[in-house]
Each structure stands twice: as structure tokens, then as C-alpha cells.
């Protein structure tokens, strides 16, 4: 599985997300500034609400731009068993039900599912609970995580 191909897929998906976010910003801004939405009394808040929405959408778009910048600078490296799993690792895990999953550990802002060939790959960051737990682990290691009251156990099958 090609890590650089996965990186390109992440960047393409982020570009699509950014386009949608920018369209949402424009639509909310147009609603906020449209002459029909000027408040006529203190209970008429459509324009104000749209302005808040435009601000939130603009923040979302900026977060996507920052994620894209991190993903563009990101250079996945080959797996080094002496360091264990690091950013850029492609990891195959198995859970207690013998269900396997492929993970690509990347920079923040790119959490998504991708398809590579016939395989589904979950992109996670090292800031995610599972991403943090994987750092430094090697093939054959157990990886326990607890999210809220749910405890999960994984085993690292392969790392690339």
C-alpha cells in the first residue's frame, strides 16, 4: 500500500471539504447581510444568527486550510522497528474479535476513511486516543485503550 497515494487522497478529500466550507461561509454571509434580514425588533435575530454561523464556518475553513498545510509538509517515512510506530506508519491491527483494520497514522485534521485497492484504511492522528497508544509500539505488541467507559484491546499485526 502506497503511503504517498494515501496522502494524496487525504489532500483531495480536504480540498473538497474546504470547498464545501467556503461555500457555506459565503451562503451564511449572504444571509447575514441580506437586506431582508435586517432586524426589525429585538426578537428578529435571523441576521445575527447567520453572522454567528458565518463566523463558525470561517473557523472551520481555516482549520481545514491548516490541516492541508500540515498534510502537504508531511513526509511519511519507512517503518523503523528500533523506534516503533511513528507518524507515517501504516498499521494493521486485530481486535479481540479477530477483526482486522488498517490505520494510517498522520498529522492532525485528516481523520477519515479511505479506500486503497480493495482495503479500507482509517486515517488517524497521533492525537487520537488510539494514535497516542500506538506510538512506539512494534509488531506483536498489545495496545490497550480506554475511551470513556469502554476498554478495547488490539494487537499490532503488521507495520509498514
From TrEMBL:
UniProt key word Protein biosynthesis: yes
Keywords (A to Z) from UniProt: Elongation factor, Protein biosynthesis
GO MF annotation: an example: translation elongation factor activity
Cross-referenced Pfam families: GreA_GreB
Entry-linked InterPro entries: GreA/GreB_C_sf, Tscrpt_elong_fac_GreA/B_C, Tscrpt_elong_fac_GreA/B_fam
UniProt xrefs under SUPFAM superfamilies: FKBP-like
Any one GO biological process: regulation of DNA-templated transcription elongation
Residue ranges of domain Transcription elongation factor GreA/GreB C-terminal in the record: 85-159
Protein name: Transcription elongation factor GreAB
Organism: Aquabacterium olei
